[in-house]
From TrEMBL:
GO terms for molecular function: catechol 2,3-dioxygenase activity; ferrous iron binding. It catalyses: catechol + O2 = (2Z,4E)-2-hydroxy-6-oxohexa-2,4-dienoate + H(+). This is Metapyrocatechase. Homotetramer. It comes from Marinobacter lipolyticus SM19. Gene3D superfamilies: 2,3-Dihydroxybiphenyl 1,2-Dioxygenase, domain 1. SUPFAM superfamilies: Glyoxalase/Bleomycin resistance protein/Dihydroxybiphenyl dioxygenase. CDD domains: 2_3_CTD_C. The lineage of its organism: Bacteria, Pseudomonadati, Pseudomonadota, Gammaproteobacteria, Pseudomonadales. It is an enzyme of class 1 (oxidoreductase). Its cofactor is Fe(2+). The keyword Repeat applies. Residues 7-122, 150-269 form the VOC domain.
């Protein structure tokens, strides 16, 4: 049952050098730079996003993800979910409005996989970049690089997939869209949605907690993904794999790394999901085809390069 969580709201990513990171996320990927706050954090957004920001870059000594956040319908829902998280046994941290520029109060909790997540209800809405909401043009003419449209999802690695699914399903109202299971029926990977998208967050079983695999950004067409591959080569950006197709979600994809070693994905397509759909199940011995449908095998870097 849906609980009023609407969509992914933002992700805060640690980078080693903020200027190098901006060249990557702004100039190569085409995210819109919004502002820099008093802590030196840089805010960015995809051009179709209405909220003020969806990506926050923080300079740090080690790369990775600080937290991922989801936007809920209103403050009443936020208060209700805060109480339900506490009742469920989560330690909930209250973060005041304005700690992130333009964002209302947030609540933060740690999932059983060790990852930090946030919920919030309010964020300043600056509108779609360059076209607005009144008689909008098709797209802004000053976009850069890959012209990323939106922050879409994260894939995270951690140990307790069952506990994390239970929390996300029972408290937050997420459904499982696709899964990879071993011969004993244990889930090795789970793709969770709170919308009509193929997934809003995904987890793969890994012995260490709190590992970041990638943040993903949506492009419109397969041609855009191929163009992204050209730009990756033109800029000597470190590539992981692709362009190719996923078996899971059927999205068309390419993976690459930012200068700090954080993995990014840009993709197009993907299945639609409704709450009455049964989960799609992949056997563990078909994992290669499930992830990379064309090659039908996983490269070692995809499995082990984590931040």
């Amino acid at each position: 049952m849906r609980k009023g969580v609407m969509r992914p709201g933002h992700v805060q990513i640690r980078v080693l050098d903020i200027e190098e990171a901006l060249e990557h996320y702004r100039d190569l990927m085409g995210l819109i730079e919004v502002e820099t706050d008093s802590q030196g954090r840089v805010y960015l957004k995809g051009w179709t996003e209405v909220d003020k920001f969806s990506v926050v870059l923080r300079e740090a000594d080690a790369p990775g993800m600080d937290f991922m956040a989801f936007k809920v319908l209103n403050n009443q829902i936020l208060e209700q979910l805060e109480g339900e998280l506490i009742e469920y046994g989560c330690d909930v941290e209250k973060i005041p409005a304005g700690e992130l520029s333009g964002c209302g109060r947030r609540i933060r909790f740690v999932a059983p996989t060790g990852h930090s997540f946030e919920l919030f209800a309010e964020k300043e809405q600056t509108g779609r970049y360059g076209i607005g909401n009144h008689n909008p043009e098709a797209w802004p003419r000053d976009l850069k690089g890959m012209k990323a449209q939106r922050f879409d999802h994260c894939l995270l690695y951690g140990d307790d997939l069952d506990g994390t699914y239970k929390l996300f399903h029972e408290v937050l109202g997420f459904d499982i869209c696709e899964q990879v299971v071993d011969p004993d029926g244990n889930r090795l990977a789970q793709f969770l949605s709170v919308s009509m998208k193929a997934h809003d967050v995904a987890f793969i079983k890994h012995p260490e907690k709190n590992k970041f695999h990638h943040a993903s950004f949506f492009l419109e067409t397969w041609e855009d993904v191929l163009r992204a591959g050209d730009l990756i080569s033109m800029t000597d950006t470190s590539i992981d794999i692709g362009p190719t197709r996923h078996g899971i979600t059927h999205g068309q994809t390419i993976y690459f790394f930012d200068p700090s070693g954080n993995r990014n994905e840009v993709f197009c397509g993907g299945d639609a999901f409704y709450p009455d759909h049964a989960p799609i199940t992949w056997d563990a011995d078909k994992l290669g085809k499930a992830i990379f449908y064309h090659d039908r095998q996983l490269n070692e870097r995809f499995l082990t390069a984590l931040t």
